[in-house]
Amino acid sequence: MASTNSTPTDPSLSQDDIAARALNKRYDSLVTVRTKAIKGKGAWYWAHLEPILIRNPNTNLPKAVKLKCSLCDAVFSASNPSRTASEHLKRGTCPNFASVLRPNSSVSPVPISSLPSPSSHNHRKRSSQMGTVPCPISHAPHHTSSTSIQVHSLAMIESSRYCGEHNYSQSPNPVGIATSTGPNQQHVGLSGGKHDLGALAMLENSVKKLKSPKTSPGATLSKEQIDSALELLSEWFYESCGSVSFSSLEHPKFRAFLNQVGLPALLQRELSGARLDAKFDEVKAESEARIRDAMFFQVASDGWKSKNPCGEENMVTFMVNLPNGISVFQKAVFTGGSVSSKYAEEVLWDSVTGICGNAVQRCAGIVADKYKAKALRNLEIQNHWMVNVSCQLQGFITLIKDFNKELPLFRVVTENCLKVANFVNSTSEVRHAFEKYKMQELEYAGLLQVPSPKCDTSKNFAPVYAMLEDILSCARILQMVVLDDCYKVICVEDPIAKEVGGMIQSEGFWNELEAVYSLVKLIRGMAQEIEAERPLIGRCLPLWEELRTKVKDWCAKFSIAEGPIEKVVEKRFRKNYHPAWSAAFILDPQYLMRDTSGKYLPPFKFLTHEQEKDVDKLITRLVSREEAHVALMELMKWRTEGMDPLYAQAVQVKQRDPVTGKMKMANPQSSRLVWETCLSELKTLGRVAVRLIFLHATSCGFKCNWSFMKWMCVHRHSRVGLERVQKMIFIAAHAKLERRDLSNEEEKEAELFATADVEDDMLTEVFSDAPTVMGLLEPVVWMANQA
């Protein structure tokens, strides 16, 4: 029976792998928190504390996550960054912290906690106890000076008459403004109450400016510094395409920030005019130069299957994959709703000719998320040198839909889970009991997830998967609900309650649920790896073989017949299969295998007879008729002699990825380079190999976020507006590909919130630490509320 305490884990992982993943996840979470903090979205101390991942020297697996002080190189435990900052930085343990805060000065900085909250009643009480507190608006000194305004007693109400009505007037001079120089002068209150203090401070500040008009607050920057800062700011704005609107530049607080640091205000017309055109021309020229330098390329088209918030318009992105592993953004095309296969074919071909003009043979092929196979196939037939493949990511995701459609087990589990979830959510007594036990066990409430009635679960299994995951995570809670006395009373009168209760207490229900959940999780996990690694087409056959092995293990674990499962997998494999998979697998030196004689030979023994024929057919199609027999002779030589063992071993050198911990090719480009150098005697076959083995098997190189689509929806009826949006998308996509950042902002934020337990622990520590820390946070909370 399934575990009732937690979501099932992958049984193929060892305890060391699980621990390594947890450490990597915590390290990534701390790095994400620190990155956001450095950008001004988190705690101050992350500027001085740096997460480090310590590895075991023998196994190279992570063994601990630590925090390193960048000021003195001290290393601490990463379990509680807030406490580390308090004990090491704020208490003076770090010898270099004070000098960093105020260089060339021995005066300690004024703590943030000394700033009062204008709307906090509790802080007002503390201010009256602490005495003089600097006004958050005034820059006046705390003592009486020649610039202080001497407030005449006739403009005030005497304290003796007023203190009985307002307690705050009894506190000594809260803004540090002298009311009299006489020793026996009584404290007076302002007629407008506490809110007059800010106005009075502003008045004093105006007097100061009149006395010394040449002094200006804020930073003083040179023209070069201002130009450089504005250039960086504009690039950030362009690269955050859609996430930040033009109207945000007119926000008063953003303008105040620019003024505070000594920068002029950025105007909308400036960012949407000449500066945007100049940046676009610069990025466009750089992209075109990279494409010109390459002898050939592959076009990747993604977005034909994506959904968008507009309902009608859709954005399809085009990238250019170069042999050296670099991907260059080309353009974004806006299409309307459902388009025909002929239209998709025309758009794809226009992209090819737009890149290379009449030299169309430079395009080695196209990879696209499969809109219509006919479009890719027609272009391949018309241009014999091209290899057009559908995206493997879409193939694996579609396999889940195939299982849901063709396996009765999926239908039974889905129906049973819908019955359980709907009954628990809709029956008030059961719902209250469920929320009570969920709060006790998981410390948060909420109903079970249920797919929307409008959702077609036969085409979209994601909502069903979320429901299965939610029910599995609440297995123990549901069993507690069924054993509750109130549920037993309901079962007497409601037959559905009795049926649901029987399912929840049935071992078969949980075993079937875990089986379906595990299979979908297995395929989704492989799909995520495909999306992250972006494999080449030579990896396709090993990927599908890996899937078959995992599915067989799954069948054995849950005692399920292999026949129907294998039938679904093979059907999807045949639909996605392309002869180039087999040819690239044979021609890529990284898959060479050492035989008993010591030679490194291509792995023909792993191909079926039909796949061997596919290799011959594809190679003869990619060369001219005159060269076909030469290519086949060279293929036979490659099959019998292979490659020099020393070069073969050099190509297959692997190293451990520091992020995932997996072994990967040390130099992925070496597979192609050996064909152009040490295998130059196989000239005809080599021309085919270098064009074939660099081709990508996925089209997911750049992800558009919803902001892109929103901007497109807003400006799609304006030629000028749409042109500006396209330029900004081009700049943003170029920057993301330059950083090799293939994710989008929504996924990053979702991942960050999913690992928010690190920050939650920090906040828990802060709020339970001491009352003075709450005083530190009050001004920040007040500012957030005002914003």
UniProtKB/TrEMBL annotation:
SUPFAM superfamilies: Ribonuclease H-like. Residues 105-120 have a biased composition (Low complexity). Residues 15-97 form the DUF7963 domain. It holds the Pfam family DUF7963. Residues 105-149 are annotated as: Disordered. This is DUF7963 domain-containing protein. It comes from Prunus persica (Peach). The lineage of its organism: Eukaryota, Viridiplantae, Streptophyta, Embryophyta, Tracheophyta.
